[in-house]
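Notebook entry, structure prediction.
Reason for the run: the old model in the group folder had no record of what sequence produced it. Starting over properly, with the input documented here first.
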Amino acid sequence: MTVKDLVKKLQDLLKQNQLSAYVVPSADPHQSEYVAEKWGRRQFISGFTGSAGLFATNLETAGLWTDGRYFEQAESELKGSSITLFRQGQTGVPDWQDWMIQTLEKGSRVGINPNLFSTQSYQKIASQFAKAGLELVPQANDLIDSIWAKARPELPGEKLSTHPIQFAGEDHTSKLKRLRESMAKVSAKSIVISALDEIAWLFNLRGRDVPCNPVFYAYAVVTADQATLYTETAKLDADLRQALGHSIAIEAYEKFADSVANLQGPVWLDPTTSSAAVEVALKGKNVPILSQESPIPVWKAVKNQAELSGMEAAHVRDGAAMIGFLRWLKESVGKEKITEMSAADKLESFRAKAPEYKGPSFSTIAGYGAHAALPHYRSAPETNSELKAENIFLVDSGAQYIDGTTDITRVFTLGKPEPRHKKIYTTVLKAHLLLGRTHFPKGTNGYQLDAIARQPLWKESLDFNHGTGHGVGAALCVHEGPFSVSKRMNMSPLEAGNILSNEPGCYLAGDFGVRVENLVKVVVAHESAAGTYYAFEDLTLCPHERDLIDVSLLSEEDRRQVNDYHARVFKILSPLLGDRDKAFLEEQTKAI
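New structure, fully documented this time:
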């Protein structure tokens, strides 16, 4: 059945259910960024495979909303589907709510699955629609599932594992104690935790339910004297249950929905991660609710010494793998057939040599030539370009190790670079360097820092349509909050111990693209009567592409920063490398 047929079938179901429109987000009941195939409803109905996007339809027309990372990808994947692409953030482009308000008559009923929207989002949508005369109609059974039917995947069933204390740095009993102390301060009798990475962190458990993310599907409920983990019970063996202890009850995942309404209130719900369905269940039994952000994301984002040490070790290991890959790539391109996909596989093979390797931290973005201009391009057999000894090749990749998570982007010239390649690359590198050497006072947020990184690009009338930095988990999700460095007004301040990416870019559609990304940690730079000032310290260890640097465009400070970074990369990685890789690295890190 084609996407056009699927959309038509959904529109027919709307008529049967007296609905005028329907919305399908890229979400699971835990508001996860990446989801298991079971929850891939938006991808199923639209054919769009990007990780971020929303599908909506009325009785006649359908649309797909996504952000600047996926414009070109979505345009390609939606061809012939009858679905209109709405480019979020572009002038004159309505969001999906405004589109419905504009296209639907007053009194129209809009179907929505409350499990797939946070309490905060759901309330905002309901209020907006009520003012416009539209009725938001919760769907107990998602209409997409009736179309998907027997073909819909089941949840993965792999066993859970413990995250060892030498990498976690704090046991789960200590974390639960902290949480209960926070509950007592706000007089909460219980707290519901829905976010999968928060649950994995809190209980020091890891799973494999979501590709590239070591999390598992579960809810957690914590009271003053009991913690209950609602998950697939077969995933926990006897040893794991013993490690958790008798104070943690294990219940089936499906039992959560029925048990939540029996909780003693006030019940603490995080409005940004708890689904609207949970709030509806509590309100249905008149259980008092305390709507307040969970303290766990802030705790999780400030890495302890064990987590920092693990992340540092993971990046040393990852850096050595990157050097092996780079040498192979430079020596082999033009001599053997290499494609985007085979290059990505080759890179993973270098990482997989480490016994600590657990898999990729996200699907590798390997874009050659014009594909490098697609910020979140994903190569497929029908688009799998062969690499030639010319042009630009962008690789954004990362790994999950038992002790840490990595994320790195490098751009390579596979032949003699053109002046325009060098100018764009060097401008992006300058943006990366400028943010990397920035000092800032305690209390500064990423929204304030974002403009600093964009200055070298803005000076050349250039920009990029994605965030400059995102938080990264310690042997957890490659994207985590609560902070970010972007144009979005995220007011969460950065703190010492945070780990985030520094990844400015520039993309010339249909031509080539550049992004330079390191992971950095926030450290205390100095303290004085004026207060505490922070700085960034690079975790990523991999040389920049010397052949693309136009030294004439670098300031003396830029040049010194590159040379200092390269000297550090060589010092740390060279003892781990064989003779050929070491000689290659020495050449790549020579002073400029």
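Summary: Residues 3-151 form a domain with the Creatine Amidinohydrolase; Chain A, domain 1 fold (CATH 3.40.350.10).
The old model has been moved to the deprecated folder.
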